[in-house]
Amino acid sequence: MKTLSIATGLLLFFSWGCESSGKKSQSGDNQAGNANESALRDTNYPEMQVNYENLGMDIVNNAQATLSQNLIRAVQQKGAAGAVEFCNERAYPLSDSVAKIHNAKIKRVSDKERNPNNKANEEEISIIYKMKEMLAQDAKAQPVIKEKNGKIQAYYPIITNSLCLKCHGKVQENILSETYATIQSLYPQDKARGYSENELRGLWVVEMDKN
């Protein structure tokens, strides 16, 4: 039962522990927040019948669901350490398989990466910093949609909550010593820790064909 409890918690963690905030924020009286949201939107936002923001969000949700199902299996077989091992070995191939179904590309990036393959490039860093500025001003970080080289690039914020901190919080305060030892053994260059709740952990990046 203990293993099942851990698995259930990790399912929630993977599904929304580091939550992809893809919904549009509700209108309000905070004019500064609204102005920041407008500024963050790309000036070349594709004005077409296809809602690329929703399409990209569907792809992200499908990827998260697939990863969650396999994560639970890993935890049931090997315990909490199995979750870290799963992320190390299987997260990329499974994400790629989901993306291929949608004829798209998908990745997660961060300015404080755990896996060097998740290091954000210069453009992604710029978007991350703008979203962090919005969150610092109590505005909701919004997805960014761009048209680039005949493709649609969609960027979705990943926001931390209490469950996310079990792997990305503060060592000994949020991250158990056993979990941290496994992280260190698999990711010796790890930077993805020290977070608190409601901080920007990184981005989901989805590349789609322009229809």
Question: What does this 3D model show about the protein?
Answer:
This protein is an alpha+beta fold and 211 residues long. The chain has one domain. The chain has eight helices and five strands. Strands 1, 2, 3, 4 and 5 form a five-stranded antiparallel sheet that branches. A hairpin with a 2-residue loop joins strand 3 (144-148) and strand 4. Helix 2 (31-40) runs antiparallel to helix 6 and helix 4 packs parallel to helix 8 (177-186). The longest helix is centred in the N-terminal third of the chain and has 27 residues, at 52-78. The radius of gyration is 17 Å and the shape is globular.
Summary, kept brief:
This protein is of the alpha+beta class and 211 residues long. It is built from 8 helices and 5 strands; from the N terminus they run αβααααβαββααβ.
Radius of gyration from CA coordinates: 17 Å
Number of domains: 1
The termini sit apart by 48 Å
Q: Which overall shape is indicated by the principal axes computed on the Cα atoms? A: globular
Low-pLDDT windows of residues: 1-9, 11-17, 23-41
Helical amount among residues, as a percent range? 40-55%
The string of secondary-structure elements, in order, is: HEHHHHEHEEHHE
Structural category:
alpha+beta
Mean pLDDT: 78
For the secondary structure, the number of strands is 5
Strand content: 15-25%
Q: Biggest sheet, open or closed, and with what strands and sense?
A: 5 strands, antiparallel
What is the number of helices?
8
